[in-house]
Amino acid sequence: MEFSEYCQRLNALYQQQQVPFHLAAPASRTALSAAEQQLGFAIHPSLRRAWQLANGGDSWQAMFVRPHFLTGYDFLSLEQALAARASMQRRAPNYADYSEPEPRDARIDAGWFQPHWLPFAAFGGGELLLLFDHQQRQIIGFQHDPDAIMWVCEDLPQLLDASLKAFEHDPDEFIFPE
Fold first, then answer.
1. Which of 73, 88, 161, 168 reaches 20 to 30 Å from 140, CA-CA?
2. What interhelical angle do 29-39 and 78-91 show, nearest 10?
3. Chain Cα centroid distance, residue 11
4. pTM of the model
5. What torsion do the CA atoms of 111, 80, 161, 50 make, to the nearest 10 degrees?
6. Residues 6 or more apart from 169 whose CB is under 8 A from it?
7. pLDDT in tens, 53-88
8. What's the pLDDT tens digit per position in 87-131?
């Protein structure tokens, strides 16, 4: 599923719940190019298209759902995504010897931070993050307390499909009046 179709269908679900659905104006090509220069890699086309459609959404407006969890994630703006990544990078040395409570999925690189990870969605001010792993081209999740990094799904289209199913199945769980 493409991000534009996903947003249209999600907007319809918000309207059914009589809750406004807000997306920010698109990120500019200049901002996306500057971000890629800063990152040192090209943002994956599926994520780039998302930011080209909307540079994030409202805070506390669920935009994504992690499969098998009842948690709605906000869509971060490009600037918020870069700030969340920089925060993880700054804190990573503090976790050099941290051992996760459960063994990590083999599909995820070792370490608390990797330069090719880019957050794009958050819950609870960054207590939970969804990250695009640009090396493996997959979606992974970060959770704080206990800190862990988990495999979420194969790619952004799969996350969109799973999120839409969760919103459709239980809209009251994810869509809240202002």
1. 168
2. 10
3. 18
4. 0.96
5. -120
6. none
7. 999 999 999 999 998 889 999 999 999 999 999 999
8. 999 999 988 887 777 788 999 998 889 999 999 999 988 899 999
State whether CATH 3.40.1580.10 applies to domain 3-172.
yes
**Type of residue found at 135:** Q
The pLDDT value given to residue 116: 97
Mind listing the pLDDT tens digit for each residue in 14-40?
999 999 999 999 999 999 999 999 999
In the chain, DSSP finds a helix count (H) and a strand count (E) of: 6, 6
Token pair in block for residue 99: 């051992």
**Contact between 147 and 154 (Cβ < 8 Å):** no
DSSP state, residue 18: T
Number of C-beta neighbours around residue 137 at 10 A: 13
* Residue indicated by tokens 């050099």: 96
**CA–CA separation, 123 vs 76, rounded Å?**
10
pLDDT, tens digit, 9 for 90 and up, residues 133-147 = 999 999 999 998 878
Q: How far apart are CA 12 and CA 150, in angstroms?
A: 31
What length is written for the chain? 178
**Which residues partner with 130 through β-bridges?**
121, 141
Using an 8 Å Cβ cutoff, are 59 and 52 in contact? no
Structural domain spans, the chain: 3-172
